Fold this sequence. Notes:
By secondary structure, the protein is of the alpha/beta class. About 45% of the residues lie in helices and about 15% in strands.
Amino acid sequence: MQEIIGSIKRTKSERVIRVLPRAEAETRTPFPGEVCISITNPNQSAAHLDEFADVLRLGFHDTDRRGGGYTAMSHASARDCLAFGEKHADAPMTVHCQFGASRSVAVGLFLAAWLDRPLRVAATDVLMPNPWVLNQLRAAALYRSLSALDGRLLKCALFGASDYLLKKTDH
């Protein structure tokens, strides 16, 4: 009986999408088959994530607009996030950025809402999902949902404001 309970708890915890700061993502031991979306600044060295089964590496600044010498999340990066999320819809997943408080929160919230998975955010200070990142994900999701006839993704694209998505967090 204890084995069954342990298996249920482990399965539930493995379905969580974790949002972590870079340092924590680099040092934690992933679950078997766990994947990671790694978000760094464009000229920053890649995070050391060799133990993850698959890693999507993205490079953009924590900005909410184009210009000013900053690289904002592109529509292509948003499409890559959605494709990676779909490919690994049932795998344990970690999303990280430098502090785990803005870019990764936006990506984690959106994927958790779309994939109907619980979300665990490690940062305890200020959490503000990056609005540009959310909007890029929503735009990519709108196109993808119409071409794939995915009603759940369409709902996230249309109603995916951070207030709606925050209801999906697992505390």
